[in-house]
Write a structure and sequence with these properties.
By secondary structure, the chain is α/β, with parallel strands linked by helices. The chain folds into two domains: 156 residues, Rossmann fold; 75 residues, Luciferase, Domain 3 (Luciferase, domain 3). The chain is built from seven helices and twelve strands.
């Protein structure tokens, strides 16, 4: 997938307001300590690197440490880590190993898969911390939607990040009403140019955006979502399930 640099810049500007700012404010304005727990082969790893750009302290965890839930929890406690960024599945393992006991990281970032109710509830109900879920396919620069436990009592993928449009459409590309499932189409600054040397697949998945300016495109995600009355989006599954 070929993505423009402007998508990463847009994500950083969004996170300054929606992710970094609230976390720093909750910590009294001090520099935070971030555990880099994601392989550099995964685009999600950029999220920790943007904390570094913002002047925070990033602890790069090696392969053995980040794969060992018990050891990672102990490391976070010893080094007073403020932010961890993991998949919901791994968050469940970390919670089972005591992540939310003793020293509690003020922010747990989630991404890469649907968040179970048990993980969301644990982060929602534990004092001194909150969870923030970031959704995004490879075809849009890393993050597309975001929402946290302070915004919702139940798991949500939240709202579009800065410079991003999210359309829930039926099979005829008509917007569906709130509460009705629809396929997610996304457009905006972070949209990829397409698949490298695969024009046919690019044309199939990146389609004309009837809601944008002339020539605008949107990406057909294949994900089924539902918009709540408050504007937050809930992930329901795949259209081909």
């Amino acid at each position: 997938v070929v993505t423009p640099y402007r998508g990463l810049t847009n994500m950083q500007i969004n996170h300054q307001k929606e992710v970094f700012g609230p976390a720093v404010a909750a910590a009294g304005g001090r520099r935070l300590r971030i555990a880099h727990t994601v392989s550099f082969a995964f685009d999600m790893s950029w999220e920790e690197l943007l904390w570094l750009v913002e002047g925070h302290e990033v602890h790069v965890c090696d392969e053995d440490l980040r794969r060992d839930a018990e050891a990672l929890v102990a490391y976070c406690a010893e080094h007073r880590v403020d932010v961890v960024n993991v998949t919901p599945t791994y968050a469940r393992l970390l919670i089972e190993q005591g992540l939310l006991e003793g020293h509690v990281p003020p922010l747990v970032l989630l991404g890469g898969e649907a968040v179970p109710e048990t993980v969301w509830a644990a982060l929602r109900d534990t004092g001194g911390t909150y969870g923030y879920n970031l959704y995004g396919p490879t075809e849009y620069t890393i993050n597309t939607l975001g929402g946290g436990t302070p915004d919702s009592a139940t798991p949500t993928v939240g709202r579009p990040i800065r410079g991003t449009r999210a359309h829930l459409l039926d099979a005829w590309l008509r917007p569906v009403p709130d509460g009705v499932p629809g396929e997610l189409y996304i457009a905006g600054i972070g949209l990829a140019r397409g698949y490298l040397d695969r024009p046919g697949l690019t044309a199939e998945r990146f389609v004309a955006d009837p809601f944008g300016a002339p020539g605008a495109r949107m990406y057909r995600t294949g994900d089924l979502l539902r918009r709540r009355p408050d504007g937050n989006l809930d992930y329901l599954g795949r259209t081909d399930d």
